[in-house]
Amino acid sequence: MSNGPLPSQLCLLPDLALRKEGDKVRFLGCVTYYSSVSGILTLQYRHPAQGSCHVVALVDVTLVLRTLKSDQVRIGEWVNVIGYVTAVSSLPARKGSRGNEALQVRAQTQVHIRALLIWSSGPLDTQRYNESLDALKSRCSITASSSTSKDVR
Predict the structure, then answer these.
(1) How confident is the model over 65-77, as pLDDT tens digits?
(2) Residue-range domain boundaries for the chain
(3) 88 within 8 A of 111, measured Cβ to Cβ
(4) How much is the pTM?
């Protein structure tokens, strides 16, 4: 029995949509918007295997405002986040327009996170990051499936 905090689960930002409220997660995302009024940092991440659904992390940074640096909220900056999932909501695909141009807006899942810690990732090779995390996920799923399928006598 441990008295310390629960460990976070490393995942790709698109996989946050599969998490439940209350899960503690660690993920990487690119800053696309920051509202200093609401204290919400919007992060996105395009993974090559991501389907037609688009996942956006809306990160509440109010708990880390004192340590938050300006480069961590700059558009285009890659940041790591550890925090708790507070809500997951889906927005259906819809049709819209811009001037005379018809637009198809794809489905979007918004995952709300309460940040405990944020830090800049520094220079990042996203392709290598994807490969590393995909390899880690496949190793973990193989380990999990083999340990659950053991014959108990």
Answers:
(1) 999 999 999 999 9
(2) 9-95+103-144
(3) yes
(4) 0.75
